[in-house]
Amino acid sequence: MTKREKAELLLRLQQRGSSLLLPNAWDAASARLFEEAGFSALGTTSAGIAFSYGYPDGERMKREEMLQVIARIVSVVQVPVSADIEAGYGPSARDVADTVQGVIEAGAVGINLEDNTGNSTHPLFPLEAQVERIAAAREVADHAGLPLVINARTDTYLAQVGEGEARLEETIQRANAYIKAGADSIFVPLLLDPEIIQILVREIPVPLNLLSLPGGPSAPELFQLGVARISIGHNAMLSTMGLVRTIANELHEQGTYETMSRYFYGFAESAALFSVS
């Protein structure tokens, strides 16, 4: 597929009424394993990539390094890839534009763009500023002739902005403003309340994206509530870290390899994953 065809496919896969389960890769190997499992599109996880390169989360990894990883992930899979670009690697609309240009050059056909400032006192960008930042992303994509899928993330629930009805109203207000600025879908991480999910599905005229969490509602349960797109964020990467920790502890304390044997992935299979890259 061409880059444009991949963008159009990703947009179709996440339409309202659809059920797109989007795993998030942090390197080429995880991307290929997700593709081999049969997923029709992938996302990247900025936190997972940052951790794998020795950085904390929150735009502590340089834009250029993140784009290099995104480009490598895109290069080893055939399916559309949506790139997690956090808050755009800078506060201004120009920063977002530069990042989106890099994403397009890397071959990704979608982005997650969040409104989280990383500042505990003022956790979200002012509405007008975030609207300008989303509009800048759309302008760059339009100039490139690419129907880039912009998944606008609002952290009203993650950052616990306001309470109760006020938080819900803030979420709806931001969502609709982001849509007018050019967003194709709205992402509200850490929202698990079925009643509120159904309100957002009703009040937001574009696909709703939620984050699945271990111990939370299953993907089929969320889809039944009207959610169109579900991503797993950094959870698979953290589970992999947990597995490596178990291997390390067993090896160090007992000198045995039971955990490695249980989850071993063959060398030949691994090599075959990259035979087309």
Structure overview:
It is a single chain. The chain has a nine-stranded parallel sheet with strand order 1-9-8-7-6-5-4-3-2. By secondary structure, it is α/β, with parallel strands linked by helices. It is globular and about 55 Å long. Strand 5, helix 6 (127-143) and strand 6 (149-153) form a beta-alpha-beta unit. The protein contains twelve helices and nine strands. The two termini are 15 Å apart. Helix content is 50%, strand content 12%. Helix 6 packs parallel to helix 7. It has a single domain, classed as TIM Barrel (Alpha-Beta Barrel).
Quick gist of this model?
It is built from twelve helices and nine strands.
Which descriptors apply to this entry?
nine-stranded parallel sheet; 12% strand; 277 residues; alpha/beta; Pyrv_kinase-like_dom_sf; single chain; 2-methylisocitrate lyase; globular; TIM Barrel
Structural class, by secondary structure, is alpha/beta
| Residue runs with pLDDT of under 50 for 5 or more positions | none
| Major beta-sheet overview | 9 strands, parallel
Multimeric organization: single chain
Helix tally? 12
- Which CATH architecture is right? Alpha-Beta Barrel
Q: Approximately what portion of the residues adopt beta-strand conformation?
A: 5-15%
Q: Strands of the largest sheet, in order across it?
A: 1-9-8-7-6-5-4-3-2
Q: Tell me the name of the CATH homologous superfamily.
A: Phosphoenolpyruvate-binding domains
Head-to-tail CA distance between termini = 15 Å
Radius of gyration: 19 Å
- The share of residues in helices is 40-55%
- Rough outline: globular
